Amino acid sequence: MSMIAIGITGFLVMVGLMLLGLPIAAVMLLLGLVGGMMAFGLAFFQSAASVVWGVLSDNNLTSIPLFVLLGELLLRSGMADRMYTVFAAWLGRLPGGLLHTNIGCCALFAATSGSSVATAATIGTVALPSLKKNGYPMSDSLGSLAAGGTLGIMIPPSINFIIYGSMTNTSVGKLFIAGIIPGLALAGLFMVWIYISHSMRREKVAVIEVPWDERVRLLRYLFEPLVVFGVVMGTLYGGIATATESAALGLVVAMVFVIAQGKLSVALLENCFLSSAKTTGMILLIVVGAFVLNLALSLTGIGEALTKWATGFGLGRVQLLLVLIVFYLILGMFMDTLSMMVATIPLAFPVVSAAGVDPIWFGVFIVLMCELGLITPPVGMNLFVVQGIRPDNGPVADVIRGALPYAIIMILFAVLLIAFPAIATWLPTAMRG
Amino acid sequence: MQRLERLSAWVFGLSFLFLALAVAVETVMRKVFNKSLQGVDELGGYVLAVGAALSFAIALRERTHIRIDVVHERLPKALRVLLNALALPSLTACAAAIAYMAWFALGDTIQFNATAQTPWATPLRYPQTAWVMALCVFVLFALVETVVMLFTLLTGRFADMDRRYGPRGAKDELDEELADLKARGVVEVGGANGGGRS
């Protein structure tokens, strides 16, 4: 069998085993280990041992548990909870009113908490009764919540960027900065869509009037999340700190807020520690699996053979990326997005690098594809989560219908990103350090 | 086991909190006073290695290692039970493989008396010993869970096999979040509700 046949068969077997419901991390790690040891015997095990120690003692990856812990602290202490009220007061008057609130609030909440499940649960629980009472169609409301929740992995701090950075040796700080404009632009496009579709339909929804002094008073609730966000992004953008250092600074500031508000308790800490350990373990085991698999691919030469094969089609940059959009769209329908990203980077990254694509730009692109995967059926995490909190017992088709326009916007945005790469690359080149 | 899990979570959380404090102090010192406490980044790597190992163990007990459920939940029951019965052993195999790798790396380190390529020149045997110990917790959790699972399987409690050892769907995760939200106290939507009536 040729290298290419082995590679493709291996990839299909891997995806097949994952789809059957075996743990993603175990499939990658064991497949890499078995494949590598079939080729090189015990020598592979030795190299794998040093790679695994290298990955797990890499200080750059220390930012993952730190950011996860930071998110948990903001979430469990209730600091992020009141953001909805603020957004509702400020955005409630635009056509599509509270739907804008959903987008803005989900984006900020998801970015600070780092969890799309927690975002949908918190924002959805608060928002849905109020949306229903004010006469918003259920599928619109659910769709905007599902789509808004996806923005968190593009707007920094984002675990997806840290993992991409460590797997491709790309600066995590620059990736974070690169995500800002696309994240905000996407949120903006979502809001434009809400504005247009609601202006055209002229649905009767209650308009929300909040007096100005009340609005200003409410801004106070944005203080803590914004200070933490500012510390993290400011130190990164100013070139003062690495991703790990900025995470540590953010965590210390958040801890100070928790103590200052008198919310520090053994129960809160235990809750945060346990949840962040759960999430960290899940993420890092997948990362370890991916590194072992990657090692097997590169030592056996399968990776290189596949890259040569793929570049042999002679696709230009644009054609290649358009093919990748279709590839990720389909894969994202069935796979969990984090696993999808980790499993495809070893294959896709060398191919696009060979085609001259900027590594930072590709990071933004791949995260956009992950966002898309979160709201495409049948496996779209956010669709199910939002469905799970709706107050009426309608069909999941409502959510899918509601989220569809946002999925289309994301695909169009991907095309836009290909046409104007500067959307992602301008800000990181403008930063210092 | 419950107590060991809680203990692991505390060790995990506190070590990262203290690490964050150290890193923050170092960063501020470096920028403001131009003085560097060397080696904090190195320390971060060691804390990660030990913390990651503990987090693997906790994620295993809490069943958060990702499994895709879309095809799984549509399979015939016998196949579903079979796959559930394979999931834990596959994670146990991972735990064993990683722990053995760590043991191996430690053996090499001791043999060559290896030190880190840093100003501290830490003898790597110390952090790697801690790493191996934390990974032993992972192996222990995996073995115990596997034995309990096999007992469930062999006594023919197939409903339990589905409920306790199936992939955690979005539903399970959501229920946990909702419970926590309730515990935090549901936020009042003063502005939004009050405004709606006016």
Question: Summary?
Answer:
The complex is a heterodimer of chains A (433) and B (198). Chain A is mainly alpha-helical and 433 residues long.
Which helices and strands, and how do they pair?
The complex is a heterodimer of chains A (433) and B (198).
Chain A: H1 3-19, H2 24-40, H3 42-56, H4 63-76, H5 83-91, H6 97-113, H7 116-133, H8 138-150, H9 159-168, H10 172-201, H11 212-218, H12 223-237, H13 243-260, H14 266-300, H15 302-311, H16 317-334, H17 337-354, H18 359-374, H19 381-389, H20 397-419, H21 422-430
Chain B: H1 2-33, H2 40-61, H3 77-112, H4 125-154, H5 158-165, H6 170-184, H7 190-197
Describe the protein in words.
Chain A is an all-alpha fold and 433 residues long. Chain A has helices at 3-19, 24-40, 42-56, 63-76, 83-91, 97-113, 116-133, 138-150, 159-168, 172-201, 212-218, 223-237, 243-260, 266-300, 302-311, 317-334, 337-354, 359-374, 381-389, 397-419, 422-430. In chain A, helix 2 (24-40) runs parallel beside helix 14 (266-300) and helix 16 runs parallel beside helix 18 (359-374). Chain A is globular. The model of chain A has no long low-confidence stretch (mean pLDDT 88). Chain B is mainly α and 198 residues long. Helix content of chain B is 76%, strand content 0%. Chain B has seven helices and no strands. Chain B has helices at residues 2-33, 40-61, 77-112, 125-154, 158-165, 170-184, 190-197. Chain B is globular. At the A-B interface, helix 2, helix 3, helix 4, helix 5 and helix 7 of A face helix 1, helix 2, helix 3, helix 4 and helix 6 of B.
User: What is the distance, rounded to the nearest whole angstrom, between the alpha carbons of the first and last residues of chain B?
Assistant: 56 Å
The most extensive interface between chains reads:
A-B, 101 and 91 residues
How many helices of chain A? 21
Report the strand count of chain B. 0
Whole-number mean pLDDT of chain B: 85
Q: Give the C-alpha Rg of chain A.
A: 22 Å
Helix content of chain B: over 70%
Protein structure class of chain B: mainly alpha
Detail the poorly predicted runs of chain A.
Answer: none
Residues in helix, % of chain A: over 70%
What oligomeric arrangement do these chains adopt?
Answer: heterodimer
Quick one: overall form of chain A?
A: globular
Element string of chain A (H = helix, E = strand): HHHHHHHHHHHHHHHHHHHHH
**What is the string of SSEs of chain B from the N terminus onward?**
HHHHHHH
Mean pLDDT of chain A: 88
Q: Given the helix and strand composition of chain A, which structural class is it? A: mainly alpha
Report the span from N to C terminus of chain A: 48 Å
Largest sheet of chain B: none
- Which strand-content bin applies to the residues of chain A? under 5%
